[in-house]
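Bumping with the actual sequence this time:
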Amino acid sequence: MKKISIIEDTLEINNLVKKILVLKNNYMIKQYFDGESVLKNLDEVLTSDLIILDVMLPEISGIEIYKKIMTIDTTKKIIFLTAKSDSIDFFEKNNCKYLIKPFDPNELLSMISSLGI
């Protein structure tokens, strides 16, 4: 079973993403709601086959978490979720996958599938 970490501070969105993934593909899901808990559990997060990462998080931004992860594992598969269009330049410059909120659940599933997850 593939493992996905969802890092999203909005409870409703975090739970919606989990529901979509569990119902459609029965992934094993670990949820995080802030950057600090991600860094405290980074070893566990890095065991994920995929990380779904919000840009705007309490304490530490999703961009900072991404940079930290990339210093450890440059092959880690990450999909950003964002409501901020000003992050798009960063995503494109770094060849990142991303979805703009609100997003179509089928688009998320398609993106995950394209990553081989």
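The tokens above came from a reply further down the thread. The chain is about 45% helix and 20% strand.
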